[in-house]
């Protein structure tokens, strides 16, 4: 089994985990954040800036909630059971920072690893870049938003047979938008 959880447990056993990996968010904070996600505009719109590459780290910090900033700009990891883990409404998932379309509910499934899982991204990584990640002593492939460089999560090769891949994504990196009728 190569689930996220097993990989993290194995990292703990090797005592090479950095504090950010297990930074926790209070339940109250997480619920508040889930509610806010449905109503809020993505950060780029709130900043009133068109080109995500023009946004400074300080501006991201000012407009993103601390938990979102930690995951998206500092490559942190949210605790398991985030607000989109067991969420299966029909719609699309866009980058919480810049609004780039990342995933569709059609490829979302419950993997049991504790984070939202997708078998593929929109248009074969149209808005996603893959980066080799050797942090914590693990060989993983990190996925980031191609438009604004937000850390999203990782992609593993133990997904459903249809693609063989499992995108393991932090809930706080995304904003869900329901399909219009
Ligand atoms: Zn983005």
UniProtKB/TrEMBL annotation:
This protein's UniProt keywords: Metal-binding, Oxidoreductase, Zinc
Record EC number: 1.8.4.12
Enzyme class: oxidoreductase
Catalytic activity from the UniProt record: L-methionyl-[protein] + [thioredoxin]-disulfide + H2O = L-methionyl-(R)-S-oxide-[protein] + [thioredoxin]-dithiol
A GO term from the CC aspect: cytoplasm
Cofactor note: Binds 1 zinc ion per subunit.
One Pfam family matching this protein: SelR
Molecular function (Gene Ontology), one example: metal ion binding
Record-annotated MsrB domain positions: 57-179
Gene3D superfamilies: Peptide methionine sulfoxide reductase
The keyword Ribosomal protein appears for this protein: no
Cofactor(s) needed for function: Zn(2+)
Single GO BP term: protein repair
Role: Methionine-sulfoxide reductase that specifically reduces methionine (R)-sulfoxide back to methionine. While in many cases methionine oxidation is the result of random oxidation following oxidative stress, methionine oxidation is also a post-translational modification that takes place on specific residues.
Family that this chain belongs to: Belongs to the MsrB Met sulfoxide reductase family.
The protein, known as: Peptide-methionine (R)-S-oxide reductase
Species of the source: Mesorhabditis belari
């Amino acid at each position: 089994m190569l689930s996220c959880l097993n990989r993290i447990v194995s990292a703990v056993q090797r005592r090479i985990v950095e504090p950010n990996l297990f930074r926790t968010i209070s339940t109250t904070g997480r619920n508040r954040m889930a509610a806010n996600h449905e109503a809020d505009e993505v950060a780029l719109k709130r900043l009133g800036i068109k080109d995500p590459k023009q946004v400074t780290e300080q501006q991201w910090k000012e407009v993103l909630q601390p938990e979102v900033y930690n995951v998206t700009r500092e490559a942190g990891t949210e605790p398991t059971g985030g607000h989109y883990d067991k969420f299966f409404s029909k719609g699309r998932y866009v980058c919480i920072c810049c609004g780039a379309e990342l995933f569709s509910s059609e490829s979302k499934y419950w993997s049991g690893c504790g984070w939202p899982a997708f078998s593929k991204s929109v248009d074969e990584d149209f808005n996603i870049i893959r980066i080799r990640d050797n942090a914590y002593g693990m060989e993983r492939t990190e996925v980031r938003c191609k438009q604004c460089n937000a850390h999203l999560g990782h992609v593993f090769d133990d997904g459903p047979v249809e693609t063989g891949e499992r995108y393991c994504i932090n809930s706080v990196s995304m904003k869900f938008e329901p399909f219009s009728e």
